[in-house]
Amino acid sequence: MGVYQPQDYVIYIGILLVLLAFALKFLFNKIKIDKTFIIAISPYMIMAVALRVLADVGFYERSKFWNITPGVYIVTFILAFSMILIGFELEKRNIVAYWKLPFTVGIIGMIYFLVNLVPFFNYPLRILVPISMALGITLAVYFLSTLFYKPLKEFENTAILFGHLLDGCATFIAIDYYGFGEEHLLPLFLINLSGTALVMIPLKLILILVVIYLLDTLYKEERKNFKEKEVSIFKYKFKITNLMMNNFYLSIKVLIFILGFGPGFRNALLPSLF
Length: 274
Known about the structure:
Number of domains: 2
Largest sheet: 2 strands, antiparallel
Order of helices and strands: HHHHHHHHEEH
Helix content: over 70%
Shape: globular
Number of strands: 2
């Protein structure tokens, strides 16, 4: 399916920054990122992966504009972002809670793409292997975290850990047992160097533990010295409030989870199809 090139990463990072700027300007100063927000956007994560896999199996002609990276994530973000904003306006008019509209639309889209994917399953039980591996390692780290870092037991941190372990375990199974290839440059280098994709599991585990620790530490330090201020991003001026700071911190965690769970779920699905 091809290997990503350095220029691809530059483009994708640029797109992420633009999307983040829009979220800061139009969303994070209005809606609190909490469990309700996560429920509202959760169907879009699976919907995006299902759409991406449908392109992999040839159901749709592959297109960077809407069904493979980066288009699939841009389209999904725009849809979810639009539904949340419309839902927020409906809530202001006391019509319905804001999260219900994006959640309903997301569920419909998710079911539609998953139903279209069902006929392509040839080995459905294969998906259970990487999920079981990731879940087992996550539970082990969860209980052991009392000994080295208790905040790891917080829901968002455990979710991030599982998402990236799923990616590592699914990559290992798909490459070492079913002949799939790695698409990213650094993992490809490490896999070739070690001779096995098993290296991705401890690599992912160590990396994500460090990221969680650094992110939590930076957030605590920022909260101690936080003062509301006006900033400018891409000529947009807006005030950074306590709500926006908390939302920004949590949105980074949501993004990190998606960057692990999205590829991980896709890599877990692919061996079940071919």
